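fyi for ur records
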Amino acid sequence: MKRVVQFFGYIGLALLVSLISLWLTNRIVPSENSEFINEESTDRSFEVQKSIPIFYFSLLPTFNEPKLSFRNFIPEWRWNGVENQFHQLITIRSMRSNVTYELVAQRVFHSLKWTMAIQIPSLIILFFSSFFLSFWISKRHNKIGKLVFQLLVFFHSVPLFWLASCLVLLFSVAINLFPASMVSFIHSPWSDVLLGSPQYFVLPIVCSVLPSLAFLTGLMVDTQFQIRDEVFWTRALSQGLQENQLRQFELKSHLLLRISAWFTGAIPSIIGGSLIIENVFIIPGMGRLLVQSLKTSDWNTVNFIVFLTAVLSCIGFFISDLFISKIDPRQ
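which gave:
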């Protein structure tokens, strides 16, 4: 019962974030300098969208009195029914783009496939590489291990845009080893590009892995040193247990707890990181779609991306809580 209440609490939080996003975008005044694809039709679509109520009901002052009176500030209850922007957002199928008039869900889910094609391999590589590096550095706590960790910290401190630009200049322009962008595959299925031309995914995946590798490796190394200072670790060694056995049964479970807590913030960072990576390498993913939607004032697409990100983040929180309670029943 507790987990059910927790799950619906997370979903309620995601819906609240989406509602706030709708309210904020309805307060935006269209700019004359916006890069509209069709300025007249976009303005008209935006004004029609703003004329639709935001939520199922409203509780607003009426301002019916001709003179200044306290009655003007008395809220009036209004039932708007299902003809509201929030209902269009959560039903997914009825919301259309303010610019292209395509179904927003179709555009976003097409872009999401590209984003996941980059980020899922990045998360897998990040997990296993940080796991291996943390054990390697903790075993060899000398100058070489410190030098490797400082190198990782350097990549972590470099801004992502600079890192991506430097990799493009080095491996695409100078050496000509990997392609610089996916501009020729914008309208192609992501699976065809991944299976037919995997070299296009190398630099984006490297840019996704390197900035987080130092943080996750450092988190695992600190956890290992903290556990080795615990009383139960010293007692187990004094009783004749091998360090490899302790690492297998005790250390990995503590590491998984830390990684699970880190994973809760991985889903929002997927979208945040893809904003830069997808625009540098011209990947038709959700981050690039979000930037283009902001430029063209396509607020329906922006709101749907916020809604989808909030839902995926809350689901990630819930799965992480389940995983932590499975590893450590005390939680």
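The chain has two domains: 2-91, 108-295. thats all i got for now
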